[in-house]
Write a structure and sequence with these properties.
about 130 residues; mainly alpha
Length: about 130
């Protein structure tokens, strides 16, 4: 899902590739964690933590990798313009289903640089 979201946004708006991927990754992780606990455990182990979102937050803090889509040049109005294209690009194999409301919420959270728990419902993920 992460790659597909970035592909659509990067192609539609010419956003910087690496920064775009860094902005989107933790939100997609937060969105999918509740529906992919085994994958979340593997990610947490690889990050040396007990929680995948906490590990991702620590990594981002250490590397100053936090980004918001608004800081990369995406306007708030662009979210509505691209949400349906993002939704159709999300693979059917994604562990958690999406609809237009959830994809818009996810994109809006990334645009704002909102805390990741807004996506997962978790207390982790700053």
């Amino acid at each position: 899902m992460h790659h597909k979201v970035c592909h659509v946004l990067g192609g539609a708006f010419g956003l910087p590739h690496a920064a775009l991927h860094a902005a989107v990754l933790p939100y997609v992780l937060a969105f999918n964690v509740p529906s992919a606990p085994a994958a979340a455990e593997r990610i947490a182990r690889s990050l040396g933590t007990a929680d995948a979102l906490e590990g991702m937050a620590d990594l981002y803090d250490r590397t100053s990798s936090r980004r918001a889509l608004r800081d990369l040049g995406l306007s708030h109005e662009d979210i509505a313009a691209v949400a349906e294209r993002v939704l159709t690009a999300v693979p059917a194999s994604n562990p958690r289903p999406m609809d237009l409301v959830t994809v818009t919420q996810l994109l809006t959270a990334v645009w704002r640089g909102a805390p990741w728990q807004e996506i997962s419902g978790s207390d982790s993920g700053r």
